[in-house]
């Protein structure tokens, strides 16, 4: 039985980051991966989706080119080319992950945990001073009649061609990113969302605005829709406002959330899970078993790639706390959120500015958008930012740093100097508006 300082189970953004950091600090590290290095994010998540988003953005740019005096008479769009491009980018980035792990001993196979901080695969017994479980998550199955006629995000991202009519069940992050891509290819797409508004976890005013923009792009969005069945002909039945509707499609995609993937044998090792199956951890990401940690999607704290990597840095001792974690929905336009929402506490208030008042946004033809700063009533400390509009994800990155640095809206309004004309001036305009109150 080989002994290591650290054994990592899972080679996604949580696992590979932890393994690489530990190896860089001179630890002996083993990483076990049952599938492809890079995990969900690289192979079936963030990266292929963003490659397809980029292709969709090109199409939308071409379609609006005439507004800028650019006539494009003949163009064709080919989803298969975009899908193959995504595949090549993923392969290239996977080589980068392999290079990052050059000092880590990698084992291919499905790991299970045995007593005494031992990890077992079909062919190996490994013993670790410390174990990190970073086994991620998988798509939730929709519990309805005809679920076998519904595909999930893994299967969607493996497609080489898009059919003409698609229905997406779930108006969350995946459902909306997919709808935004599919619609750019001229396909008929309907999103059926169970809750009264899309993106239930987001600021609802921002989510509503996004819904308006996506609807204007031709995406049909039905909220308050309870899907009851899918037939073998891909006819979806759903209930909304007390009535029953049916909608035909060529393909039905489910994007209703994700479930944790945990290694076998955890119970014997004393690792406990909550009622939804997520591994219970403390603030240091240690599980209920001494020396066994769980990071990333599998602990359900924040199911984002950068959150998994941040948790890896904590477990490896590089830092002691997770800062505010931004979340970006890469629709066209983007929607983004960091920190508190105004609805979180009555001591908070918000100041908002539409993108249509920003010179750069108008020049770029991106006047659709709204940015909100959330700050504390008494000392004006910045606590959150929500935005929908072009580059919303980059804008909230700036505010995330300001929140972590403890900035007030007074400082942002009076002391920061931002290049003109720039989208970032929207942040300063919102801070100034807050001070006008
Ligand atoms: P994973 O990336 O899921 O990696 C876990 C790894 O563990 C897998 O490779 C798996 O094969 C392996 N494994 C599991 N069990 C075992 C076992 N018993 N033995 C050995 N290996 C095992 N997040 C963002 O931040 N930005 C985005 O834009 C974004 N887009 C997304 C788009 C889609 C379509 C999806 C599905 C997700 C997206 N996410 C995004 C979420 C992101 O992919 C996850 O939050 C992230 O991958 C979690 O990382 P992880 O390391 O916890 O787990
Ligand atoms: P989600 O939790 O974001 O959204 C699921 C949606 O489906 C919710 O709006 C929910 O109300 C709805 N829903 C649930 N059951 C339903 C039903 N039976 N009928 C109709 N609607 C139903 O989950 P999603 O979109 O699957 O994504 C999973 C996770 O992956 C995200 O929470 C996020 O953490 C991560 N992700 C992150 C991305 C990013 O950062 N850009 C992109 C894609 C995924």
Structure commentary:
- It is a single chain.
- This protein is of the alpha/beta class and 437 residues long.
- The protein has helices at 13-24, 39-44, 46-63, 79-100, 153-157, 173-184, 204-216, 266-269, 305-315, 359-363, 392-404, 409-414, 425-435; strands spanning 2-9, 29-33, 105-108, 112-114, 118-120, 125-133, 137-139, 150-151, 165-169, 188-192, 220-222, 226-230, 235-240, 243-248, 251-254, 258-260, 292-294, 327-329, 335-339, 348-354, 369-376, 382-389.
- The strands form 5 sheets. Strands 1, 2, 3, 4, 5, 6 and 17 form a 7-stranded mixed β-sheet that branches.
- The longest helix has 22 residues, at 79-100.
- The chain is globular, with a radius of gyration of 23 Å.
- It starts with a strand and ends with a helix.
- Bound molecules: flavin-adenine dinucleotide (FAD) and 1,4-dihydronicotinamide adenine dinucleotide.
- Flavin-adenine dinucleotide binds at residues 9-15, 32-35, 39-41, 44-46, 49, 110-111, 134-137, 153, 174, 261, 263, 296-298, 303-306, 308, 330.
Percent range for helical residues? 25-40%
Oligomer: single chain
Shape: globular
Name the hetero compounds present.
Answer: flavin-adenine dinucleotide, 1,4-dihydronicotinamide adenine dinucleotide
Taking the alpha carbons of the first and last residues, their distance comes to: 68 Å
Residue-averaged pLDDT, rounded? 97
Can you summarize the main beta sheet? 7 strands, mixed
- The number of helical segments is 13
Total beta strands: 22
* Uncertain ranges: none
Radius of gyration: 23 Å
User: How big a fraction of the residues is strand?
Assistant: 15-25%
């Amino acid at each position: 039985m080989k002994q290591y300082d650290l054994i990592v189970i899972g080679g996604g953004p949580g696992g590979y980051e932890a393994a690489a950091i530990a190896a860089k600090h001179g630890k002996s590290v083993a990483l076990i991966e049952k599938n492809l290095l890079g995990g969900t994010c690289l192979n079936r998540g963030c990266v292929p989706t963003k490659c397809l988003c980029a292709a969709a953005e090109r199409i939308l740019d071409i379609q609006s080119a005439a507004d800028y005096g650019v006539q494009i008479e003949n163009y064709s769009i080919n989803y298969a080319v975009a899908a193959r491009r995504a595949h090549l980018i993923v392969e290239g980035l996977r080589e980068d992950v392999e290079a990052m792990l050059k000092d880590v001993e990698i084992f291919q196979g499905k790991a299970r945990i045995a007593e005494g901080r031992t990890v077992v695969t079909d062919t190996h017994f490994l013993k670790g001073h410390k174990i990190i479980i970073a086994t991620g998550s998988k798509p939730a199955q929709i519990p309805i009649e005809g679920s076998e006629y519904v595909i999930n995000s893994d299967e969607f991202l493996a497609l080489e061609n898009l059919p003409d009519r698609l229905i997406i069940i779930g108006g969350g992050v995946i459902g909306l990113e997919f709808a935004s891509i599919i619609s750019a290819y001229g396909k008929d797409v309907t999103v059926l969302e169970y809750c009264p508004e899309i993106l239930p976890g987001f600021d609802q005013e921002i989510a509503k605005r996004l819904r308006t923009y996506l609807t204007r792009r031709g995406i049909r969005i039905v909220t308050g829709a309870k899907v009851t069945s899918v037939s073998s002909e891909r006819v979806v039945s759903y209930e909304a406002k007390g009535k029953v509707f049916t909608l035909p499609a060529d393909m039905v995609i489910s994007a209703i959330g994700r479930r944790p993937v945990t290694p076998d044998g955890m119970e014997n090792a004393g690792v406990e899970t909550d009622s939804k199956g997520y591994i219970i951890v403390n603030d240091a990401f240690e599980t209920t078993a001494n020396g066994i940690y769980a990071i990333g999607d599998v602990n359900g704290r924040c199911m984002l790639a950068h959150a998994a990597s941040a948790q890896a840095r904590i477990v490896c001792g590089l830092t002691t706390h997770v800062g505010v974690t931004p979340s970006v929905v890469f629709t066209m336009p983007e929607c983004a959120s960091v920190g508190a929402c105004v609805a979180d506490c009555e001591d908070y208030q918000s100041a908002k500015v539409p993108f249509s008042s920003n010179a750069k946004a108008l020049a770029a033809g991106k006047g659709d958008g709204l940015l909100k700063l959330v700050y504390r009533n008494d000392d004006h400390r910045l606590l959150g930012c929500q935005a929908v509009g072009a580059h919303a994800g980059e804008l909230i990155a700036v505010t995330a740093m300001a929140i972590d640095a403890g900035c007030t809206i007074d400082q942002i309004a009076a002391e920061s100097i931002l290049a003109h004309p720039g989208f970032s001036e929207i942040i300063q305009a919102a801070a100034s508006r807050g001070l006008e109150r």
